């Protein structure tokens, strides 16, 4: 195994970013995703774009505009595309096989929604013994009935920093910290 690092970009799809579903710091998160993805590509590290495929549910139907990734994302032909069918990207998807093929042992996680798909994927990756690094300002969500988006993001960053890992580990760092670590 090569102990390679991969970037997971979860559900940055048009259907999750509408006027009816505003997200916290959308433009900042997109900017940080684009910049970190560029750094990964420059180091020949895999970049995975994860898209929820709700085929048959009437939402996020594959090939529809709401299923598409945001136009502001810079996506390269060399990037990997993984369809997911539940909050947890590992559930019945090709991700685990692709990560094993690439020799990936560490995952850097970004995307939407903090309290659903990002959280489920982080938890699942831990149970699969990955080293997990969450970009603290690289995930987003919307306001919920009892909690504002910014508080949810802050809460989950705290939860992840205080989890007991399995054989892998979990860390939470800002985009700037990760960028500096990768460039120095």
UniProtKB/TrEMBL annotation:
Keywords: Hydrolase
Record domain Isochorismatase-like: where: 5-146
Highest taxon of the lineage: Bacteria
InterPro entries according to UniProt: Isochorismatase-like_dom, Isochorismatase-like_hydrls, Isochorismatase-like_sf
Cross-referenced SUPFAM superfamilies: Isochorismatase-like hydrolases
Keyword Repressor tagged: no
PANTHER family hit by this protein: ISOCHORISMATASE, PEROXYUREIDOACRYLATE/UREIDOACRYLATE AMIDOHYDROLASE-RELATED
Protein name: Isochorismatase family protein
Species this protein is from: Carboxylicivirga marina
């Amino acid at each position: 195994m090569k102990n390679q690092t991969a970037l997971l970009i979860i559900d940055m799809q048009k259907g999750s970013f509408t006027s009816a579903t505003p997200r916290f710091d959308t433009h900042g998160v997109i900017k940080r995703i684009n910049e970190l993805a560029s750094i990964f590509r420059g180091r020949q590290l895999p970049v995975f774009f994860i898209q929820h495929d709700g085929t048959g549910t009437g939402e996020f139907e594959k090939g529809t505009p709401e299923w598409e990734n945001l136009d502001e994302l810079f996506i390269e032909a060399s990037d990997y595309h993984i369809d997911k069918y539940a909050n947890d990207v590992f559930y019945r998807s090709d991700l685990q096989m692709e990560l094993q093929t690439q020799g990936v042992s560490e995952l850097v996680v970004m995307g939407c929604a903090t309290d659903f798909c990002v959280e489920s994927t982080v938890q699942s990756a831990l149970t699969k013994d990955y080293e997990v690094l969450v970009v603290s300002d690289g995930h987003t969500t919307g306001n919920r009935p009892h909690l504002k988006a910014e508080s949810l993001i802050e809460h989950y960053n705290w939860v992840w920093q205080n989890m007991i890992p399995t054989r892998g580990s979990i860390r939470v760092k800002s985009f700037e910290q990760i960028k500096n670590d990768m460039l120095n």
